[in-house]
Protein: AGRG4 protein
Organism: Nyctiprogne leucopyga
Amino acid sequence: MLNLVFLTNSWLSSFNQPGLCITVAVLLHYFLLAAFTWMCLESVQFYLSLVKVFNVYVPKYILKCCIAGWGMPAIVITIVLIINKDFYGNGSHSESNPFSNFCWIQENIVFYISVVAYVFLIFLTNTAMFITVLLQIHSMKSRTQKRSRFWKR
């Protein structure tokens, strides 16, 4: 959906309908955040699978992942819309090239908080999960090598 909205964004913004442009910008923002949220959930799954191998049963795990994966971006979008729906709009008003228009976030501060900070937090979470998994794999490898040396003796 992110790709579909992104590819049709310029065409839809050429109709010069503010409501349509706000809707397209909101959808683009939502699907972008949802893609990153699901990437974060994948790293959590990676952590649970490789580090917390045993006793990891989480009741209704898929439901909880779906609520987090689709709900967290919805909360961010809702907050932005409650503050001011005009944060979304048409980025360019060039008459010579109507397809240079693009519906997106108009305020830099809102962009940095609702996109850049959000993605940065997910990047930090993914990095922490990755390092934890690497350390776990390294410790398992060294334990296996110690056991192997012991049995060879």
Observations:
- The mean pLDDT is 89.
- The chain has one domain: 1-88+104-151.
